[in-house]
Amino acid sequence: MKYANIYILIFIICFYSCKNKYDEVHSLKGVPTNEELLPTGITSLIDKCIKCECHWRFNRHIGKEVFIRYSKSYFSPDSSKAFIIVVHQINDVENRANPNVDFEIRGDAFIGYKNKNEWKLYLYKSMMPVGYYSYKEVEDMIAFFEGENYRSKTYTNFYDNNKKSQGPVGVSPNDPDFWNSQLWQQNLEIKEVYPFEIQRYNVGAEKELSINELLNERCSSK
C-alpha cells in the first residue's frame, strides 16, 4: 500500500508537470520583433533566408506563415561586426514537442561583418533549438551565449607556433573582448577567412557559403 501511494503521488506530479508544460504556450504573434533596432541590411538578409528556404535549417517554411523576432543583437564598438539571436515561428505545422499547438518555434544565431558597406552574414551553430512551442523557452539561448557554457565549451581552431590547435572562444558576445577573440581572427585555417566562415569535414575544411551567397544560389528564382 505504501508503494502504491508513492506511485500515485509520482503520477500526479508528472501529470500536473506535463499539464503545466503544455499550458505554457507563448506564441510570437503580436510580440515586438525589435527589427527597428537593426540595420535593414541585416534584417532583409535574415528575413529572406528564413522565409525562402535557402538553408536546410528552414526546410519546413515554404507556403507557411512565419513570424520572426530579433531577440538580441550584439555589435562591435565600430558597428562593423554583428552577432544576432533570432527566434521564428512557423504556423500550421506539426509540433513534435507539444501536440496541443499547431505551430513550431525555432531559434538561430547569425554572425557576420560589414564589407564595403554591405553586410555579409553566416548562420552560426546550425544545431539550435527546434520544435518548441514557446518563444520564451527558445530565448533561453541568450543566457547560453552570455554564460560560461558558451565561453568554455564552444571551440575554434587556431595556430600556435605554426601548429594547428583548438581552444574555447573564452568570451561571450556581450563582452567587448568578444570582437577580438579567436572567432574573429582571419588566416587561422584558410587565408582571409574567419573561423565561422569555415565548413569542416573529417578530411578537411572549406569556405562556407554566406547567407548572401545562399540567397543568390538557391532563392533568386523564388
Which segments are poorly predicted (pLDDT under 50) over 5 or more consecutive residues? 1-20
The helix tally amounts to 6
Helix content: 25-40%
Strand arrangement within the widest β-sheet reads: 1-2-3-4
Mean pLDDT: 81
Output the structural class: alpha+beta
Shape descriptor: globular
Measured distance between first and last alpha carbons: 65 Å
How would a crystallographer describe the biggest sheet?
A: 4 strands, antiparallel
Work out the radius of gyration. Answer: 20 Å
The fraction of residues assigned to DSSP E strands is 25-35%
| Extended strand count | 8
- What's the SSE pattern? HHEEEEHHHEEEEH
Describe the structure.
The chain has 222 residues and is α+β, with helices and mostly antiparallel strands. It is built from six helices and eight strands, in the order ααββββαααββββα. The chain has a four-stranded antiparallel β-sheet. A two-stranded antiparallel ribbon has the order 5-6. A two-stranded antiparallel sheet has the order 7-8. Helix 2 packs across helix 6. The longest helix has 22 residues, at 2-23.
